[in-house]
Amino acid sequence: MRAVDVIRHKRDGGTLSAEEIAFFIDGVTSHSWEMYQISAMLMAIVWRGLNDGETAELTARMVKSGVVLDWSDIPGKMVDKHSAGGVGDKTSLVLVPLAAACGCKIPKMSGRGLAHTGGTLDKLEAIPGYRINISPEEFKAIVREVGCAIVGQTANLAPADKKLYSIRDVTATVESIPLIAGSIMSKKLAEGIQGVVLDVKAGRGAFMKTRDDARQLAQTMVNIGQRNGVRTVALLTDMNQPLGYAIGNSLEVMEAVQTLQGQGPRDLEQLSVRLAAWLVVLSDLASSLPKAEEMVQTVLANGKGFQKFCEMCARLGGDVKVLEDISLFPQASGRYRVLAKQNGFVQSVHAEHLGRSAMLLGAGRARVEDSIDHAVGAVMLRKPGDAIQVGEALVELHYNHEARLHEAIPLAEQAFEMGDKPPKLEQLILETVG
Description:
four-stranded mixed sheet
């Protein structure tokens, strides 16, 4: 078998065999395929696509390219959650401890921010002392004793995916649903889990701008999970406006803490509870979703979810004092409020504009090597449907550098669309797949 023959087969619209896919992935990890051959293959996949069987096989081969975590010595099913990325999406900080407080085992490996979307690891590093890089032995011990741990991804999980992603990023081959789905699911399956719930965002602040594209991505990932023996369900959720009010690392951790204490935004609580409930169902700890939601609401109301978050953070080196008193988090030196220029109602909030505004302030990275300013970001003061008068504040920008503030203000101003009448509001959870 030759690389050129496999490339030609896919270029001409053929269906790749399991042997051809294995030959391709082996070539990626062993470096027997040249960079230009890998690039040509990826472009052929972008143009011709992959069917469900090819996508599942590609994912399985990427999983087998590295280590698969073994949890067989820990009782219970291992489950996890993955989000396709959004603005203000801090649900992992809320739902993981809630589900763990219900008895779930969650070995969660997360990533950093990408473009205008925030990353769970960046948020957690806003907690002084929190360690995201730990040994497999410590990871397993924390999951066994606490029930959950949120840490960084190890280098030996799905190494083929890491190599392919680095090439896709510079060869204009990112925009392929089978490749996106395979990349996400290969890392989840390599965690050695038995169940996963996926939060697939749709809208202006998401990578999937349309509901149809989000549904296709969700269905593809559900098919991959099921074909690889992992119980998988996906929620399609709205990302035309940010989730919650806070955007930025420390600000989002503080909002997550408030939510775990029963004082958070309604939309963040609603989505976190639903996702946590699915983890309870996938863990076989409840016979139905309504019963699982009741369990989650109980540990939210009695504070056990917040206690579990503090316990996890403490085991990972985090300073629990800042969680018990969020005023101890580092604060940005300046505040700037964007004011309404007309009376009326907020029609919509462009999530990507606010996400990019926060990124310009220093809450995200334009380049991999950029450092994060954990204190900066934005706090929305109005949501779609809210009435407002001229001169009232729409959003407050938290900044440490005047020059960055001036770059961020125009995007923040453009984020709010005003109108004379209350808008028709989109539901947060659009549909369930799987």
